[in-house]
Amino acid sequence: MKHKKHCDYIVCLSHLGFEYKDNKISDKILAKETEHIDLILGGHTHTFLDEPYKTKNRKNQEVIVNQVGWAGIKLGRINIYFDNKNRYDYVSDLTAISVKETIT
């Protein structure tokens, strides 16, 4: 997809779950076993990560995996910055949400 469709950066929205004790497919396994995904934004296991998890894919390129929990308790943000040579860097932020009133 990166080369065929000329994509600079591929984001995967996942509901596999961050990790499991057995060998069940997860965001961490997906990141390691693929070649073109740059960022995985995941859900399902409701994992609170203070910082994105970084790993290497099959081509030894960095893949970022992030989950920010569940129910909007925390919101995550990742800003991705590109230079003119398609190199990138990122800054992440995790914000706790305070709910003071009940919505009816």
Descriptive notes:
The protein has one domain (11-96). Strand 1 (11-13), helix 1 and strand 2 form a beta-alpha-beta unit. It has one helix spanning 27-33, and strands at 11-13, 39-41, 53-56, 62-66, 74-82, 88-96. It contains 1 helix and 6 strands; from the N terminus they run βαβββββ. The mean pLDDT is 87. Strands 1-2-4-3 form a 4-stranded mixed sheet, covered by helices on one side. It has a two-stranded antiparallel sheet with strand order 5-6.
Please state roughly what percent of the residues sit in beta strands, choosing from under 5%, 5-15%, 15-25%, 25-35%, 35-45% or over 45%: 25-35%
Report how far apart the termini are.
45 Å
Shape: globular
pLDDT below 50 for ≥5 consecutive residues: which ranges? none
Placed side by side, the strands forming the largest sheet appear as: 1-2-4-3
Order of helices and strands: EHEEEEE
The biggest beta sheet is recorded as: 4 strands, mixed
- The count of DSSP E runs of length 2 or more, i.e. the number of strands, is 6
What's the domain count?
1
